[in-house]
Sequence to fold (807 residues):
Amino acid sequence: MLINKRLILAHFWLAFAGFGLALLLGEWQMFIRSPLHAWIGNPELYYRSVTAHGSAMAYVFPTLVAMGFGYAITEAALKRPMIGPRWAWLGFALVAIGTVVAMVPVALGHASVLYTFYPPMIGSPFYYIGVVIVVIGSWIWVALMSVNLYAWKRDNPGQPVPLAMFSNVAGSYLWAWTAVGAAIELIFLILPAALGFTTTIDAGLSRVFFSWTLHAIVYFWLFPTYIAYYTIVPRAIGGRLYSDAMGRLAFILFLIVSMPIGVHHLFMDPEVGSGFKFMHSVFTAFVALPTLLTVFTICASVEIAARLRGGKGALGWITALPWRNPIMLATAFSFIMLGFGGAGGLINMSYQLDSTIHNTQWITGHFHLIFGGAIVIMYFAIAYDLWPHLTGRALASFGLMRLQLATWFVGMMVLTFPWHWVGILGMPRRMAFYDYTDPALAAQAASVIASVIGGAILVISGALFIIVLIRGQLAPRVDAGPYRFSVAVHEPRRVPAALNGFPLWLALMIGLTVVNYGFPIANLAALSNTAVPIVPVGTGR
Amino acid sequence: MSDETAALSPRDKWFRASVAITAGIAIVAAAVGFIWLPPFQAGARFQGVWNAICQAAGLAQPAPTAAEVVTAGYKTTGVVFTPGMFQGAGAESVGRGATLALRCTMCHGARGMSQANSPNLAGQYAAVVYKELRDYKSGARTSAIMQPLVVGLSDQDMRDLAAYYDYLPRPPAYHPASAGPPPEIVVSGATMRNIPPCAACHGGLDNKTGSPWLDGQPAPYIKAQLEAFKNGTRRNDISEQMRNVARNMTPDEIDAAARYYSSQPP
Ligand code: HEM
Ligand SMILES: [Cu+2]
Fold:
């Protein structure tokens, strides 16, 4: 039962519009710093573009997808109208306004500081204010998810919360808490400098606060994808979810262990002690757990679908899967990219191995594969699955959808494999210019050209995606029926209180954050001589 | 809600299990990271449990022996730049500076434009003039000519002189198309030799605080400074910014940069 369809569609359209534009910037970046193009002569233009691309892809796009999908889940899973649609529109408006406020100074070249802010560089205050407004808009969503869950629980005492809603609320809580780090950094450290109240900044402390956000934000990006694995995929391919409890456990584990590990982004930084780095490294190893649980559960669910369709043999069942179904295809591609990306992630999380790939193009290759690949391809699947229910019109271009998903997969592999490789060769990230005429770099030219080709395939795929959605808006009306989520092999009738609510897990999440971040933050905040002069950036100063 | 908070009670088996497992992992990780691993590092600072914990926690501690403190074997600059440190110098300051500058005209020109291959000071950023004067005075930058001239200058005198020269009109960047494209070293640097574009600090692409305005400076002066940075006779640049650049420049690049920046309207 979807009632606030326009609300959800507005979120998705704004998300995908931003995504489409940012995609073009990404390919432009890849192209102009490849051997196919002469040096543009001005690095500022490059950083302007990377700031816009990174901010749109990392902050705006996934936040809007999570919000829109969250509202859809609230109504479809709880089977009743959502509480607070007006507030939801306000949240949407704030995200839209914040995006404009942030992007105008970026476009004008007044805030080419990259989406990680990079203090002591300081750009136009409007960029940071815009980001804060986006975050505030998303916090309205967090509050609404909570309100809707508890209202439903009050009316349905003792009933198990549907897995889709449980995981959706878990994602919103994770976001609420992880965004606090960057919010503190922006409001207490960066904005005072950007607005001219101070001329120095504690760059080390700022980076620690940013790391608080930086790791768990990637799990916030990942939540819609995992929710789709558990609650859409088994139903879409005609199977059943192998285990409902396993899903709850995986999302709970994400809540606990994705927060106290962000210092793995600071392994090469001097301001955090090695003991804390080690602790963060250990907990980072544990985030593999919910992903392994998920891979196991989803593979088992897919096998159930295959056997229901008459699949036989130890591996022969794979051929019985509905491979022409876009959701099946997207899931398979997503898993392959998740596998490669996860293997790369094991290198990044190891305190020592990280030093060989730190700040190289390996990192950009890694997160494009995981985020741009494994995660975003499931955003496409979510949109395809929801579209007929949102528009009330048929989405029938199955051939086009398969082509779109396949080109996204191929493009992402062709983009990111050479990207990892040049990283191992030592190519630094976030550089506007590489002199391929130098013998030391000449060998990397071919790999970079391959990445340009991969990026071009992705642009085509992105265009196909938008075309499919637009055709869906123009197609004849159909009744898509009620929106349903996967049914588990054993549907839960009663679940333990712990698996049906969040107080225990939120307490652990916050407690562990305090244990792992409390001392490093207090230690840096107490030092008096750690501030450095700010470095204003941007044209027109 | 009883259902909600039930799991928060120590009697709940989920509570006990999850808290015990999480705390167990944290304690083992902490023991390894704070007690077992640090002593594998060389140095007395890591020996003993308490030292190991303090080091691993990242506590800022004074270096135990003077020998471990690295200092340059020469005088470094004492100036720290903060953005906007010279904003809003009043007309009064400019006026005092103009009077003080009468002593400088012989070499730096009546209105800051030198006729004698001394550096132009007209329109030079106040932060730069102030810093160079302070460096001459402290001996961080050496010059047989300039050092005796600054001995008597107070800090306020130097600020006033800086404000005055900043106020004078600066020679414009003059690079007509007929002179050909700007040298690679200026606009692109030499990435493989770790040389950023000069224009990224000295204007053109971006201006970084403390980087002097170079356009219109006499070629012999630019060349002499680059060579001084290169062979280490000038070492007042903060964090070796210019020495790292100049050291890796070829003689041809030094000539090209000097020619480019010294270009003046006819
Ligand atoms: C056509 C496809 C794409 C291409 C060619 C592309 C290319 C690039 C390039 C060249 C950079 C800068 C890397 C550097 O300077 O080190 C970059 C950064 C980034 N990209 Fe993409 N990208 C694409 C798609 C995506 C997608 C789909 C996402 C996520 C949804 C994404 C997220 C990011 C982020 C977060 C950054 C970080 C910016 C930073 O380092 O500050 N990109 N991309
Ligand atoms: Cu991380």
